[in-house]
Amino acid sequence: MKNPWTGRESEADEPYLNEYKDISGQVEKASVMRDAARGHTVPTFLKITGMVARSLFLVALMVATALISLPATISASRLAHFSSADFLRAGIGLLVCLCVAVQLFRRPKDNDGYRVWTFIGLAAAAVLVFVMALKIAFPALV
């Protein structure tokens, strides 16, 4: 079947799994393959900065989640008096911390990921550290 816009045969028959058509109609590989083929590499400084910023953000997110999800007072004698909502909140917080910990050991999939994490990771980590400082200074707020 012909495509009415391009005048070519149907593109469903083409066996390209990880490719897409750009505006000119040429087939290009996904971003990782395209960058490698064109000789684009990430500078070492940017790669290290991106990984550090991403790690800072994810660790700050884990700490903030743990601080918010745990009850205010934890002791063996008070454990019996916790409501089911407290246990549910702590369980969800633990699950979120485990998921973030798994993401901590993954790397960005393409070269632009390091650049994005350099800028967004540092800004988000600063905001999370500020929120944690507020939580520690004023426990009644959160």
Protein architecture, described:
This protein is mainly alpha-helical. The chain has two domains: 40 residues, no CATH class; 94 residues, no CATH class. Helix content is 58%, strand content 4%. The chain is built from four helices and two strands. It has a two-stranded antiparallel ribbon with strand order 1-2. The longest helix is centred in the C-terminal third of the chain and has 27 residues. It is elongated and about 70 Å long. About 4% of the residues have low confidence.
Total number of beta strands: 2
Pattern of helices and strands: EEHHHH
Percent in helix = 55-70%
Largest sheet: 2 strands, antiparallel
Number of domains: 2
Round the Cα radius of gyration to an integer and report it: 23 Å
Uncertain spans = 13-18
* Structural class label: mainly alpha
What's the overall average pLDDT, rounded?
75
- Count of alpha/pi helices: 4
Tell me the β content.
Answer: under 5%
Write the topology of this structure.
Layout: E1 19-21, E2 27-29, H1 31-38, H2 44-69, H3 84-104, H4 111-137
Antiparallel strand pairs: 1-2
Helix pairs in contact: 2-3, 2-4
What descriptors fit this protein?
58% helix, two-stranded antiparallel ribbon, elongated, 4 helices, 2 domains, single chain, 4% strand, 142 residues, mainly alpha
